[in-house]
Design goal:
- It contains five helices and no strands.
- By secondary structure, it is mainly alpha-helical.
- The chain has one domain: Ferritin, core subunit, four-helix bundle (Ferritin, Up-down Bundle).
- Helix 2 packs parallel to helix 5 and helix 3 runs antiparallel to helix 4.
- It is elongated, with a radius of gyration of 18 Å.
- The structure holds fe (ii) ion (2 copies).
- One fe (ii) ion binds next to helix 3.
């Protein structure tokens, strides 16, 4: 099937760059998940693992958009994330800070779409802007939870149990493997206890 190229070179490069940042986000949260695993906090690890899955989807959704618009996906090196944090609060603070930075990156990307007079991409990016509102809210909520827990072991265990309830869900209309059916019940982020 012939696909007409709708993206300018500059727009393609900017979208590929953001897809890379989304995969970096996934890597960062997976690193945090591993950190919580090392502390024996599996519920916290689960929350971060689901978060990592969502970022992977953000990256793939952007990759798919580039392809569908006739562009060429370009994979660059993914930056190595931080390995250790001083405390759960510090890790969740880093999540919140990171999400704020990403919101800025998405807004800058919208700026590129506007300057390239690319209305289709501008519309596509609206999903990411909405997503960032949710991401900032949920990371702020979980940061506040970690702050109130502090170092109280009972409160920590209760929070760990609660964060262990988070489940991964693909966004509606998104197919991670669009070129063939996957086995039933395939999920990302299903952590067996
Ligand atoms: Fe993201
Ligand atoms: Fe995010």
């Amino acid at each position: 099937m012939m696909v007409i190229l709708m993206l300018s070179e500059k727009m393609t490069e900017a979208l590929n760059g953001q897809a890379n940042r989304e995969l970096y986000s996934s890597y960062l949260y997976l690193s945090m998940s591993a950190y919580f695993e090392s502390l024996g906090l599996r519920g916290f690890a689960n929350w971060m693992r689901v978060q990592a899955g969502e970022e992977l989807v953000h990256g793939m959704k952007m990759y798919d958009y580039v392809i569908s618009a006739g562009g060429r996906g370009r994979m660059q090196a993914i930056e190595a994330p931080q390995f250790v944090w001083a405390s759960p609060v510090e890790a969740f603070q880093a999540v919140y800070n990171h999400e704020r930075v990403v919101t800025g990156l998405i807004k800058a990307l919208v700026g590129v779409a506007i300057s390239e007079k690319d209305k289709t991409t501008e519309n596509f990016l609206q999903w990411y802007l909405d997503e960032q509102v949710e991401e900032e809210e949920s990371s702020d909520m979980v940061l506040n939870k970690a702050k109130t827990v502090g170092s109280d072991p009972r409160a920590l265990a209760a929070a760990d149990k609660e964060l262990g309830q988070r489940r991964f869900k693909f966004p509606s209309g998104f197919d991670m493997f669009p070129y063939g059916r996957q086995p039933e019940g395939t999920t990302i982020g299903s952590l067996k206890k």
